[in-house]
């Protein structure tokens, strides 16, 4: 019995021939009728044994480093993913998330310092402009007397 189901043994050559002539889905249905086994119990025979891969978890530093490599070297995501041993779809998701976060307004420390300096410069220029306006007004008043 397989998973509580009675199994009627049918030669494998029959199933292989059925799969070749009818197609895989039809062979699966035919096999299920012939052997009275649910699809989960025999699917591996048509597709080969596939062991599920344990899901790997990557820490934040590794993800950020991988994204930085893609952004700084301008190499394709697929090539960097192969070099690091990461699925290219996974690395592509990381890069897309980093781009979205960057577009959302997250500034680097250098950009913050530059922005602060620009604010100081703007304030200084506004004061100079106001002083010049006042001096022009006084100059015009003196000229009209």
Helix-strand blueprint:
Blueprint: H1 12-22, H2 24-35, H3 39-47, H4 60-73, H5 77-84, H6 88-103, H7 109-144
Helix pairs in contact: 1-2, 4-6, 5-6
Question: Which terms would index this structure?
Answer:
145 residues; mainly alpha; 3 domains; 7 helices
Give helix and strand order, one letter per element, not per position: HHHHHHH
**CA(first)-CA(last) distance:** 116 Å
Helical amount among residues, as a percent range?
Answer: over 70%
Whole-number mean pLDDT? 77
- Rg to the nearest angstrom? 35 Å
Contiguous runs where pLDDT drops below 50 for at least 5 residues: none
The outline comes out as rod-shaped
Q: Characterize the largest beta sheet: strand count, sense, and whether it forms a barrel.
A: none
Structural class: mainly alpha
Number of helices: 7
Strand tally: 0
Beta-sheet strand percentage? under 5%
Domains (count):
3
Question: What's the short version?
Answer:
The protein is built from seven helices and no strands. With 145 residues, the protein is mostly helical. It has three domains: 12-47, no CATH class; 60-103; 107-145.
How is this structure best described in words?
This protein is mainly alpha-helical. The chain has helices at 12-22, 24-35, 39-47, 60-73, 77-84, 88-103, 109-144. Helix 4 (60-73) packs across helix 6 (88-103) and helix 5 (77-84) crosses helix 6. The longest helix has 36 residues, at 109-144. The N and C termini lie far apart (116 Å).
């Amino acid at each position: 019995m397989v998973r509580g189901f009675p199994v009627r043994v049918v030669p494998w050559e029959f199933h292989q021939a059925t799969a070749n002539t009818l197609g895989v889905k039809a062979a699966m249905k035919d096999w299920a009728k012939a052997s009275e086994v649910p699809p989960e119990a025999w699917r591996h025979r048509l597709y080969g044994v596939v062991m599920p891969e344990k899901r790997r978890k990557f820490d934040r530093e590794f993800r950020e480093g991988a994204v930085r490599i893609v952004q700084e070297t301008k190499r394709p995501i697929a090539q960097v993913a192969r070099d690091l041993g990461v699925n290219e779809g996974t690395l592509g998701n990381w890069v897309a998330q980093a781009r979205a976060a960057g577009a959302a307004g997250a500034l680097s420390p250098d950009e913050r310092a530059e922005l602060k300096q620009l604010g100081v410069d703007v304030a200084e220029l506004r004061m100079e402009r106001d002083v010049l306006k006042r001096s022009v007004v006084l100059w015009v008043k003196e000229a009209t007397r």
